[in-house]
Amino acid sequence: MRIEWMFVAVVIALVGCGAKTVSEAPAPPAVTGPSDATRAYADLKKQVAFGPRTPGSPGAAACRDWAIAEFSKALGTPAKRQDFSMVARGSRVAMTNILAHYNPTAKRQIMLCAHWDSRPSADMEIASDKKRKPIPGANDGASGVAALIEVARQLKSSGVNVGVQFVLFDGEDYGPGIQDMFLGAKYYAKNPVLGKPEYAILIDMIGDKDLQIGREYNSDRAAKDINDRVFGAAAKLGIKEFIDAPGHEIMDDHLELQRIGWKAIDLIDFDYAPWHTLDDTPDQCSGESLKKVADVLLAVLKNP
Predict the structure, then answer these.
(1) What is the DSSP letter of 138?
(2) In 14, 105, 236, 303, which residue has its Cα 20 to 30 A from 165's Cα atom?
């Protein structure tokens, strides 16, 4: 993903000194949700172990087949491939979006999405030889996939009655320029085979150990009511990592969905130091962060 530096909101918290007074309400305790942090973190590491998940690579093929199998097992129905090709970097590139569907006959449908590819070049590295290497993509790619697979595992036992469309986009991070990014989302926006959802929630870079998810600017502008539902659910669960305050303005897959008139938001922690570097590795991530995001999504799906 890319960040638009035109808008950066800074929130300053003023904390008073001295003894606590009776008028100060304590923060609500965090509610333990159903998601499994250890299992989600193992799924993140599994993806990185495949190697670079760049389009056409052996790692991408292995990760694609693994993700399809995991969604199929979790939902009890086969996940599918949406194969396509796009012109990028001057040549046509074969790619695959991964699709899974829970309760497809439900009247209300909500879409959860992430990107599953990893970036072919570590453009934020300083050394030129490192810049040409693909990033491991632990947080930037694998985290969103791991959280969504964990959500899929919990749906039946969590009492979710709405339909849930899972879409993993390919080619989000292909690049290096912005014109060669968000390729899977661009294709899916023109070919939405699972149908138009009531709204879509994109998750990206949500595995950071120091997780802080604010209200992304383009999301608030286009679908503030959906952000309200998400951050309200996080507050009820006592999950403080969802910061109910203005965040960065991000260019990401959700904009391709907004362009076709869909309500779509992006849950993202862009303040991640190893972004687009060779240090985007599993040790920078936390299973607890994955769990918290999955639990918030499940809470939204239960009360959509």
Answers:
(1) I
(2) 236
In angstroms, the Cα distances linking 89 to 9, 53, 116, 288 are: 33, 17, 20, 37
Report the C-alpha gap between 6 and 14 in whole angstroms.
26
Q: Name the region of 103 (left: φ>0; alpha: ψ -120 to 50; beta: rest).
A: left
**Maximum CA pair distance of the chain?**
66
Chain centroid offset of residue 78 CA:
22
Cα dihedral sign for 187, 63, 59, 275?
A: positive
3-state secondary structure 261-294: CCCEEEEECCCCCCCCCCCCCHHHECHHHHHHHH
Angstrom distance (rounded) from CA 297 to CA 290:
11
CA angle 34, 37, 39 (to 5 degrees): 100
Those residues with Cβ within 8 angstroms of residue 52's Cβ, 6 or more apart along the chain or in another chain: 59, 60, 118, 120, 134, 135, 136, 137
Q: Which of 197, 194, 233 is nearest to 31 (CA)?
A: 233
The number of beta carbons lying within 10 Å of the beta carbon of residue 54 is: 21
Integer Cα distance of 296 and 48 in angstroms: 25
State the pLDDT confidence band at 31, using cuts at 50, 70 and 90. Answer: low
- Distance (Å, whole) CA 111 – CA 202: 8
What does the pLDDT read at residue 101?
A: 98
pLDDT, residue 304, reads 81
Distance, CA of 78 to CA of 71 (rounded, Å) = 8
pTM of the model as a whole: 0.90
Structural domains in the chain plus CATH codes: 33-302 (3.40.630.10)
What is the pairing mode between strands 163-169 and 109-115?
A: parallel
